[in-house]
UniProtKB/TrEMBL annotation:
PANTHER family assigned to the protein according to its UniProt record, in alphabetical order: ACETYLTRANSFERASE, AMINOALKYLPHOSPHONATE N-ACETYLTRANSFERASE-RELATED-RELATED
The protein's name: GNAT family N-acetyltransferase
Organism whose genome encodes this protein: Streptomyces spirodelae
High-level lineage: Bacteria, Bacillati, Actinomycetota, Actinomycetes, Kitasatosporales
UniProt keyword annotation of ATP-binding present: no
SUPFAM superfamilies per record: Acyl-CoA N-acyltransferases (Nat) (SSF55729)
Keywords: Acyltransferase, Transferase
InterPro entries: Acyl_CoA_acyltransferase, Bact_Acetyltransf, GNAT_dom
Length: 158
């Protein structure tokens, strides 16, 4: 049984440890962008700041015994209209991580659905996220969950 709950400031150490799962993957593929060993205090501060932000929802997934299985960090964004584009309210999934032992067990899907629900409750019309091209597992997960590519961001080292 997977339980999803809103994280609190009491969870920042746990969130920092869960973040290491996805951070290590990013650092392995893009060490030019991601720190090798981020300072624990700084990572905890990152989560503390986001938990206090009313536009941000941080969710924790827990198993039947209360063990942490993963987390998601999402933000409601209001985009004003322009001469060319409609205004929009979106929920942006900025981070998601699942412990390796719980991969492919429904934890990611439960977190994603909880983010969708938070977005709907906030009046959002769409869910958006981005994924690093090297992260084939995440791309497959999002595609299976019904998300489709919206744009492609390109990168070139100079």
């Amino acid at each position: 049984m997977i339980q999803i709950r809103t994280a609190s400031s009491d969870d920042v150490a746990l969130l920092a440890s869960l973040n290491q799962i996805v951070h290590d993957l990013h650092n392995r593929h893009r060490p030019d962008l991601f720190l090798d060993s981020p300072e624990l205090d700084a990572v905890e501060g990152f989560f503390r700041t986001h938990i206090a932000d009313p536009s941000v929802t941080v969710l924790l997934a827990e198993g039947a015994e209360g063990e942490a299985l993963g987390y998601a960090l999402a933000r409601v964004r209001n985009r004003p209209g322009t001469a060319l584009e409609h205004s929009d309210i979106i929920v942006s999934l900025d981070q998601i991580a699942v412990v390796p032992d719980a991969a492919r067990s429904g934890v990611g899907a439960a977190l994603l659905e909880a983010v969708r629900e938070a977005g709907r409750a906030a009046g959002c019309r769409r869910l958006v996220t981005d994924v690093w091209y090297f992260n084939e597992g995440a791309r497959a997960f999002y595609q299976a969950a019904g998300l489709s590519p919206m744009n492609v961001r390109l990168d070139q080292r100079l």
